Amino acid sequence: MASLTGLPTELRQRILSIALSRVKDINMQPPRCLINLLHINHRLRLDMGPVLDLWNPIHHISSPKLLPSFRPWIFTIDGIPVQPKGGRMCIDVFCDVKEDNTAWPCYSVDESHSTYALVAAAWSNAVPLLPTEIKELYVDITPILARRRREHRLIIGKFLRHRRVLEFVSSHFEEIMELLSILQRRYQGTVPIFLTGLLSTKSRSFVERISAVDGLEFRGTWFTQEDSHWPDIQEALKYVAPPPKGKAKTGGVVNPLAYLRNLIKWSDGTKWMYAKLVDMGEFENVVMDLRLLGEFRNDTERLTLSISPASPSRRALQHKIAKDLGLETRSGGEGDGRYIILSRKPLVVPAAKC
């Protein structure tokens, strides 16, 4: 830490502030990075006093049941108590909704259970427990359960545009309006209230209806149709085996890899890994892998093939492509040098009948 401690105090403290999370969940322990910064050495420990004093995280509350236990963190540095600001708070309306694993897109077992008025009502009843001294209040109306929010953004985007999710959002207009009304009466205009969350642009009319009544600003993230579009593996296959044009459609040499476009039934796992890698900017590498595996399948004289080391995600796709092509795979190497070894499935010769 000599290089950090040797920097000017102001610059050093600005660097330390970057390590602190912008959002704090009140039912979590202080982040490990914060505890570590308080125990590295005496100079950095003293620096953390001003840093914590200026730190203004959004206190994220995922359930109304957690409000009674809300206690801001207080740290003691050389006998002096230091408390991060608690001026910004976010209540997450649907984060704590119970999930039925068999019907996630609608949060219910059947069509008759499409709303969760009780959840919104629980928040309304918990409003008196909110601190009075806050400076900003955010109401998160993301229609996604807590553990599902860790999914890839392509999955979230597609989910948010699902018809039943859009219905789920719009069906809670009255409940959300009631909650906002209670919040406004609680703070009497002294605390600015904002809507936030992850929503599809198809839900824009829902937010506009609320804004038309209460004049609230939406400070969340809109997911567009493009955000929910999964790249199609057929796009890559057009580069691997370009479709014939003109006279080539009726005659001429057939591309030996055309079967990848026409005959292979790609699994859902392969399609998903392809979409994920393309979203990561790996399109050219995926095209190369499809061509390599397709050529190996055609070359019956080669029994095995070792592919160059690749990232875990890319190797996962290689495994799935190989499986769809009827090939066998195993892994070799260690660490960053891990790679895939392709081989053909042994032919099963029927036993001769006596």
From TrEMBL:
Protein name (Swiss-Prot/TrEMBL): R3H domain-containing protein
Family annotation (SMART domains): R3H
MF term (GO), any: nucleic acid binding
InterPro entries: R3H_dom, R3H_dom_sf
TM region positions: none
CDD domains assigned to the protein according to its UniProt record, in alphabetical order: R3H (cd02325)
UniProt-listed Gene3D superfamilies: R3H-like domain
Residue span, R3H domain: 283-346
